[in-house]
Amino acid sequence: MKIGVIDTDAQLNHDFFKDKKIEVRRIRPGIKIISEENYPFTHAEYVCAAILAENPLAEIILYNIIGNENQKNGILMADSINALVDEGVGIINISLGIEELYSDYFYKICEEAKSKGVLLVAAHSNENYVAYPASFDNVIGVDNNFGKEVNKFFRYDTKNNNISFAFDSMVSYYQLNQKYLMGGNSFLAARITGMLSVYYEEIRNSTVLEYIKKVEKNRVNSIPDFVDYKNNYVICMSNRPKDLLQRRFAKECFLCSDIVVFNEVESFLHTKSKISLENGTFLIDIDNYGYYTNNKKELDRIIINTGILFRKIYTRYPIYSIEERMSLQKEYGLLIEQPYL
């Protein structure tokens, strides 16, 4: 599955990218990280990481059209869309927008891409300005403009072909070992691109809208209610059970005092009553992506075999993609709840 990304430049030095397929077409080269201290990657690297978190097998062709000067060019963006279509991508992810008057020329470029079976996903302006191509009806626009009272991560407006996330929605970059969450329509749009790319061949053209509605209605799209976890027994599977901050988090957020490493979970649960588990919560708190990937096979086995014993399963960090969570739900009846995408 080839995905085109129109964004800034990228170095891709982090271990997460080493086994990933990313080609960079440097139109306007220039590495500019977001923040040396807390956000040490370029905008494009964050976008690519978000896409690959949902679909690690995707092949990305990155068109770098924003350099150090941060200038946007509508003609260059349109040319990049045409070039990516010619390179055979199935989806194009666009983080930037042109905050100008409607352009019939630009609209027709997007319409031609769509006619060739290419999906376009674009982030709306974070300042709520009207920007293109996100505001075109032939492009899936992504913003974060609806209230959390709906209790969903996102909802889809079929009339405007727009996906709106709950206000102030954040994206985790657990896969980059970054502890700080990130807000912004670009990163939310990238997760949507990754999600859609998994089933691209099945959902292209006429069925893509049906698929988005299907995910919207699925319980994986529900924002967890923390209050519900505190009413019954909770056990925490952790990679750092003796860490003071870990124990404090488990106690304050879940009233949980039983914290064990993954290879001790099953034997530990033999000491607990079946009723307490059936009404309880299985909390997964693994804060190191490398630890999870190194032990993935065994951790997944334990999560499945142990999870079916509990009423709820909650993972503090997004170790599973949306597609993986939906697959676990379908195959095992497990609903993995998590606070972020």
Characterization of this structure:
There is one protein chain. The protein contains 13 helices and 17 strands. With 341 residues, it is of the alpha/beta class. It folds into 2 domains: 2-221, Peptidase S8/S53 domain (Rossmann fold, 3-Layer(aba) Sandwich); 226-337, no CATH class. The strands form 4 sheets. It has an 8-stranded mixed sheet, with helices on both faces. The protein has a 5-stranded parallel sheet with strand order 14-13-15-16-17, sandwiched between helices. A two-stranded antiparallel sheet has the order 3-4. Helix 1 (43-54) packs parallel to helix 4 and helix 2 runs parallel beside helix 3 (104-115). The longest helix is centred in the middle third of the chain and has 14 residues, at 185-198. The model has no long low-confidence stretch (mean pLDDT 91). Pfam families: Peptidase_S8. GO terms for molecular function: serine-type endopeptidase activity. This is Peptidase S8/S53 domain-containing protein.
